[in-house]
Amino acid sequence: MTFSTILIANRGEIACRIIRTAHALGYRTVAVYSDADAGAPHVGLADRAVRIGPPPVRESYLNVAALLAAARQAGADAVHPGYGFLSENDGFAQAVLDAGLVFIGPSPAAIRAMGNKAAAKRAMIAAGVPCIPGFQDSSDDGQSAARLTAEAERIGLPLLIKAAAGGGGRGMRMVRDWDGLPAALASARSEAESAFGSSELILERALTSGRHVEIQVFGDSHGHAIHLGERDCSVQRRHQKVVEESPSPAVTPALRAEMGAAAVLAARSIDYVGAGTVEFMLDADGKFYFLEMNTRLQVEHPVTELVTGLDLVAWQLRVAAGEPLPLAQEQIELRGHAIEVRLYAEDPYAGYLPQAGEVVAWQPASGDGVRVDHGLHRQQTVSPFYDPMIAKVISHGRTRDEARRRLVSALGRSVLLGLANNKRFLADILEHPVFAAGGATTRFLDEHLPAPARPEPDARAWAIAAAIWTLGHVRGDYSPWRSAGRAAFPLTLRTGERERELAVDLDPGGITTVTVDGVALPVRLLGRDGVVFRVLVGEVQETVHAAVVGERLFLDARGVQAEFTEPPPKGAAPEAEVGGDGNLLAPTSGRVVAVHVQVGDRVRRGQTLVTLEAMKIENALAVAIAGVVTEVKVKPGDQVPQGRLLAVVTPDDGPEPAAASAAA
């Protein structure tokens, strides 16, 4: 099983991560890329790179023929799938082996055994691994709406519907009342079919206040299998992980040994080889239940690496080359604490809408105990075709609180300008008293941050924005030492829906006095390193991140990010309005999955008109009025940009239609 050149069948940060370790071990690497990723960092980092198709994943990163052709062209003799895409596709693993290449992962049979949640639960029950009560019948009868409904009633509420063939929260729906069951089944089927090519579902009793704890396992081809401790992934939204840490605050050494033994039993039952993760739900009484097994490297593997001191990708390569595991179970030690957060191009203050567009500035933090895994460079475009994760920011400390503080600091020092992101939201999670005390369950976000309010820039931020804007537009640079005549003038800036009239007094000595709501704030720019500015406001110095692009100023001050523009002068012709009541606009770029209405339909307030898939997540779109559908501008399959008019509802005087009943 010797190999010398590894093709990484993936993109972004995980491709970069694998390439670095492969190079460190002396392997040559081959990157693959779609047209959307032609200039991405992973392409330049690899020894060779091969184009595999246009941006849509089915024509590029999910195109098995193109990937195998790329391996032949570049002379690769092994393939690493990373995570996501084809990493848990047994057909791809078999195709790699059939092509005479080494697949750096488990056998196709092991992937197949755990790739379908229904089959995996049946296998784990047979192996004696504790499982959550549920229903996992793959037969035609078992998948009928009538049978699923009957089994749901047997299991009881709250109920979790899952795509049998998938993961990552897609094809998953929570049901808390019976009226919502039919719609949840239909929606889960649709998303599962779209994401995984299979509409098969399983049902589980939902443990709504437990913890999501997973065990990292490793097996080799010599019959050895061990675990590397646990990761707590309880902080989730839409069943997707947001924060991961190791060790879990809720797991004792005795419980770790018990859960680890169950995870190793699961791995041994399918002759598992390579890196894998067995996921459990842990209830308040310390009982744990099998959820699923991910037959690949996890997004959150860095926290395990930091507490064990091991390189899991290096272990993958050694095991794939036929070597035995480097360590035995009794040699595994956990040292300190590690926490990871996922930095996303999404707006957590607008329903977590994915964002696409140009990254104006990106400078990840560094320092003791800080690691940032990413595959991004400045001015790279975040594409609507792929997952919106930009980077993983990870910290390590002697204690959990030291790791937590370091991570908050690293987020604040990381520069990300140009599009909405969840940097501040992640810091708010880490600083929340419940999380800080180690008490977060899978209900954490619903209970403590259900609808986070958008942070607004304070008077200091407005003053800093005005100073940077003025020096950039009036003086032409940001040098605080350049002499110029005194200038005083009014300035109006806008961010979001807020607009302020400011008074600016530019002194030749380098002080800009900005009057905000009647209060004069002197601002001096002390220095600048790219987009990192050191400013003095009054008597307090601080560091802010700012970039002026055309007529837009992006500012991150004290953790609050805002985009400032100067509105047109009073009396100027107004811009044509797009939107307004009844106009349904695409909140982000994406693909139209379904159109639920026709012209002439009467709809109620909040009724779903269009389902839009953006970055693998389905969004049900509605308008806030009742009326008659007078225009439908799109059809299923259309790719639409952000802001595109999708449909129009015109209000009328008729009675508002009632919501559909559960039996409808």
TrEMBL record:
Give residue ranges for domain Biotin carboxylation. Answer: 2-450
Q: What is this protein called?
A: Biotin carboxylase N-terminal domain-containing protein
Q: What is the lineage of its organism?
A: Bacteria, Pseudomonadati, Myxococcota, Polyangia, Nannocystales
Name all Lipoyl-binding domain ranges. Answer: 575-650
Cofactor section: biotin
Which keywords, in A-to-Z order, does the entry hold? Answer: ATP-binding, Biotin, Ligase, Nucleotide-binding
Q: Residue limits of the ATP-grasp domain?
A: 121-321
The cross-references to InterPro entries, in alphabetical order and at most eight, read: ATP-grasp, BC-like_N, Biotin_carboxylase_complex, Biotin_carboxylation_dom, Biotin_COase_C, Biotin_lipoyl, CPAse_ATP-bd, PreATP-grasp_dom_sf
Signal sequence span is: none
Superkingdom field: Bacteria
